[in-house]
Automatic annotation (TrEMBL):
Coiled coil: none annotated. Residues 41-287 form the G-protein coupled receptors family 1 profile domain. Keywords: Cell membrane, G-protein coupled receptor, Membrane, Olfaction, Receptor, Sensory transduction, Transducer, Transmembrane, Transmembrane helix. It is found in: Cell membrane; Membrane. Belongs to the G-protein coupled receptor 1 family. Gene3D superfamilies: Rhodopsin 7-helix transmembrane proteins (1.20.1070.10). One of its GO terms (molecular function) is G protein-coupled receptor activity. It comes from Geospiza fortis (Medium ground-finch). It is a multi-pass membrane protein. InterPro entries: GPCR_Rhodpsn, GPCR_Rhodpsn_7TM, Olfact_rcpt, Olfactory_Receptors. This is Olfactory receptor.
């Protein structure tokens, strides 16, 4: 049955994290602090890596790309949330909502692929050190990063096209602070069973597949490091454990959110905070501050800045 254009939804209302007015200032402060930390931390990494020739290894090249993606990924949702909390304006145009959904999945899936590549880089460096230079040559690194972006783009296009095929004639209230597949698909005035399963198999399997590859890679790395513990590799083992912690923090909420049809269980908007804000904020801390090379480079950068 054709949908009447006059009844088509032209905007959505994002309810945000809470309807209680007294919490708006608290959420605004927390989001502003978190977003500022994401921007400053990741920008510092990008500047440090790109200006220090000593950080030219594939690991730091990939880390620099991760920082760039984290900035873009967080910027898809955080500025809009801050404006809404400060002004109270909760409406977002239909086109703007679809654009936010597209870039959210574009950046999010690209980051998943890149984290998987970073785990492969560490596996190669530790488990196959004699072949590391040949496998992770500069051209190969560029190709892997390009593949991450291409994979994220294809995934996001599929999600967005599937969403645009659905009719929306009301209601238009989204019980979240950003536009995403699970809360929006519930508003479609049509049978969405097939679309939900297609989206779950797309987003959910990507999240689960990347996570399993990451866990397998780090398990092999930790087994290799554990065999050399007597040689003083406790720091490497601790670093691997911290990496596993941060990827678990990023992937588990995504798997819970996307690896099921959207209508089966409600998705907590507070869980979404973990992978949209908290995880990008922790990446600079986990991946850099535990590295003596990065800390020394940051110190050299600080001394150079003081001379100007």
């Amino acid at each position: 049955m054709a949908q009447d254009n006059s009844s088509r939804v032209t905007e959505f209302i994002l309810l945000g994290l809470s309807d209680r007015g007294e919490l708006q200032l608290l959420f605004f402060t927390l989001f502003l602090l978190a977003y500022t930390m994401v921007l400053l931390g990741n920008l510092l990494i990008i500047v440090t890596v790109t200006t220090d020739p000593k950080l030219s290894s594939p690991m730091y090249f990939l880390l620099c790309n991760l920082s760039f993606i984290d900035i873009c990924y967080t910027s898809v949702t955080a500025p809009r949330v801050l404006v809404a909390l400060l002004s109270g304006h909760k409406a977002i145009a239909f086109e703007g909502c679809m654009a936010q959904l597209f870039f959210l999945h574009f950046m999010g899936s690209s980051e998943m692929f890149l984290l998987t590549v970073m785990a492969f880089d560490r596996y190669t460096a530790i488990c196959r050190p004699l072949h590391y230079t040949a496998i992770m040559a500069r051209r190969a690194c560029w190709a892997l990063v390009a593949a991450c972006w291409a994979g994220g783009f294809i995934h996001s296009i599929v999600q967005t096209v599937l969403m645009l095929q659905l009719p929306f004639c009301g209601p238009n209230t989204i019980h979240s602070y950003f536009c995403d597949v699970p809360p929006i698909i519930r508003l479609a005035c049509a049978d969405t069973t097939l679309t939900e399963w297609l989206m779950a198999s797309n987003s959910g399997l990507i999240s689960l597949g990347c996570f399993l590859v990451l866990v397998a890679s780090y398990a092999l790395i930790m087994a290799k490091v554990w065999a050399r513990v007597s040689q003083g590799n406790w720091k490497a083992l601790s670093t691997c454990a911290s990496h596993v912690m941060v990827i678990t923090l990023f992937f588990m909420p995504c798997i819970f959110t996307y690896l099921r049809p959207a209508g089966t269980l409600p998705t907590s908007k507070y869980i979404c905070v973990i992978y949209t804000i908290l995880s990008p904020m922790m990446n600079p801390l986990i991946y850099t501050l535990r590295s003596s090379e990065v800390k020394e480079s940051m110190w050299r950068l600080w001394k150079r800045c003081r001379t100007f």
